[in-house]
Amino acid sequence: MPKNDLPNIVITRDAPLIINDSYQTMHYGTVFMDIGAYIEIRAGQKFQIEKLSEFNRFSETGLSESEAAAYETLAENETKADWRHHIIITGKNGVKGDNGNDGKEWGGHGVRGKQGDPGENAPTAFTLTIKQLKFDLTVLSTGGKGGDGGDGGNGANGHDGSSKATGGIGGNGGNGGGGGNGGNGADMLTVRYASAGGFEPLVECMAGGGGRGGLGGTPGRNGEHYTGSAQPKEGSDGNSGLAGRQGQAKIEKIDED
Fold it and tell me: What integer pLDDT is reported at residue 2 of this predicted model?
């Protein structure tokens, strides 16, 4: 383990390390990663690890209980992502748009769903440095996913009327909101590493995907004694958001200390 005052941590599959702003710790000593664990970096310009090793229940970490627990994790109400990479340089995902309200009684139309928020861009230029790499590492550079559009509200049923009073037409379904555009990946991600054991990083660049368009609302039914020929319409689905730019990456091998 490097002899320095840098923080040393264990990252588990249930508590990933999330970097949300550039004032968080960006330089670690030894980092142990459990199977399924990940580091998600959404801010800053560089991130450095002196030694990156695999972790399991047989690992000899040499860390105190406070060192093993002293790191940022998921924010309140934030769910764990289903990443397939160890380290992800990205932007925050866009928030889903609100669903439209249903139509009021007697044939009111459904309200259009709200547009999904765009995904945030990854840091424009970012450098990841690992001085001692102890396993084959996968790194992803991508923008945040656009938020899905809100679903359109459903139309209200028309007034039934009676044998002496004509019923009303049902309300149209509201249109779905458009999906938010995906964020851009880093224009250039540089991964610098050293490994005496011959381990290597594999880097993938992907554009942030656009959000799904919201579903159109269902039309209300015509009233029982409606005599007209017009029919309420189903709301149209919203358009999907556009993908962001993919960006590029390069790998630089450095000398191990």
Answer: 44
